[in-house]
Design a protein that fits this description.
The protein is mainly alpha-helical. The protein is built from nine helices and three strands, in the order H-E-H-H-E-E-H-H-H-H-H-H. It has two domains: about 70 residues, Winged helix-like DNA-binding domain superfamily/Winged helix DNA-binding domain (Arc Repressor Mutant, subunit A); about 140 residues, GntR ligand-binding domain-like (Four Helix Bundle (Hemerythrin (Met), subunit A)).
């Protein structure tokens, strides 16, 4: 089969894959909810084949779990899962941001400042609507992902892609009070200042503080692991 003949199918699968992930991010698909091939195919106006392929990929990536004779459903986290991910991020993400101090280019730095601007704009309002929480979650994921990739270590980026992705797919920013949101935004800015100064130790220290504050907030939100909402910024 030629590359040309497989492109449309692969494109459709990728589109379905991204659409389902986005719905999980937004909370439209809840933990333990089954994702039905026919329903997704009808909603996205595609055949069931790319939906089936996308579901298979999402199972392999940890977004969904396959239930024998029932189908695929959204994974739910336990408290142990959350703690393990925080432990990994506390080791690996500060390392990645330290590397970014040596590797980052001006364009990427400008993009990170733009993301920080947009997040700060969202958090400037005292009453944030639900859609703003969802947008903040997406922007924050982009910010962390870009920082990790800026380090230039592809193996580390690949490991963290899975770790960070699973850490943010059930984020609930409504659990953050105004003080916590402002602190998180300040951490982002200080990390960028440290990177601009080329000070890896500073950047690493801020990232660690950022994650420790996130973990502490997670622990303070009762039932976060049971209801599927994952606190992480």
């Amino acid at each position: 089969m030629t590359a040309t003949s497989t492109t449309p199918s692969r494109t459709a699968t990728a589109q379905v894959h991204e659409a389902i992930k986005q719905r999980i991010l937004e909370g439209r698909y809840r933990p333990h909810e089954f994702i039905r091939e026919a329903a997704v195919a009808a909603e996205l106006d595609v055949s069931r084949t790319p939906v089936r392929e996308a579901l298979r990929e999402l199972v392999s990536e940890g977004w969904l779990e396959a239930m024998p004779h029932q189908g695929a459903r959204v994974c739910a986290w336990t408290e142990k899962d959350a703690q393990e991910v925080f432990e990994l991020r506390l080791v690996l993400e500060p390392m990645a941001v330290h590397m970014a101090c040596r590797q980052i280019d001006a364009g990427t730095l400008a993009d990170l400042h733009s993301l920080a601007d947009r997040m700060e704009a969202l958090t400037s309002c005292r009453e944030m609507p639900a859609i703003a929480h969802s947008e903040l979650a997406s922007l924050n994921h982009q910010f962390h992902r870009m920082l990790i990739q800026a380090g230039g270590n592809q193996r580390l980026a690949q490991i963290l892609e899975g770790v960070v992705r699973t850490s943010v797919i059930r984020r609930n920013f409504s659990s953050y009070d105004r003080e916590a949101l402002i602190r998180s935004m300040r951490h982002h800015r200080e990390m960028l200042c440290a990177i601009e100064a080329g000070n890896g130790a500073w950047a690493e220290s801020v990232m660690r503080a950022h994650l420790l504050a996130s973990r502490e907030l997670h622990l303070s939100v009762s039932g976060s692991a049971d209801d599927g909402t994952q606190v992480s910024v």
